[in-house]
Amino acid sequence: MAKKEMEVMKDVDLERYMGRWYEIASFPSRFQPKNGANTRATYTLRDERTVNVLNETWVDGRRSFIEGTAFKANPDSNEAKLKVKFYVPPFLPIIPIVGDYWILYLDHDYHHALIGQPSRNYLWILCRENHLDEEIYNELVKKAKEQGYDVSKLRRTTHTDPPEGDEGPKDTKGIWWIKSIFGK
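== Temperature-induced lipocalin-1-like ==
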């Protein structure tokens, strides 16, 4: 059975979307450590077409991060289809990795969002806070299922009290990235 075409948000105000978002749940991926906690993304508008992306997670008390950029897939479209680009490995950024970042749902207050991409291999539930009301979470899971996602793969992200800024010991060697390749 063919999956229906995914619906994405339209006319998203990128300036309003900027700031910190906490990962509430996601599909496991080889790009993120399995035991990462307090995972979050911070978006900063670089110019009218480019967004700086900072993805962070804590593994065994150490802050791991990767920085990249995002841009509209089609600058002339009003659809919230972005491309994200990271260079790997983070300690020697030579290989560009480009992926899709589609905003499938965003509430009116820009408080919580459902992010996916066309292959349906990746899915994120994000929130401005590190917790989300269970009823809203279930609504987002339902929306993902309606978009053709296998929501049984969703895993909740553990959140404690991470530092507000970028404090904390850093994994400066990119070891988390190497481990993630091997599924650790």
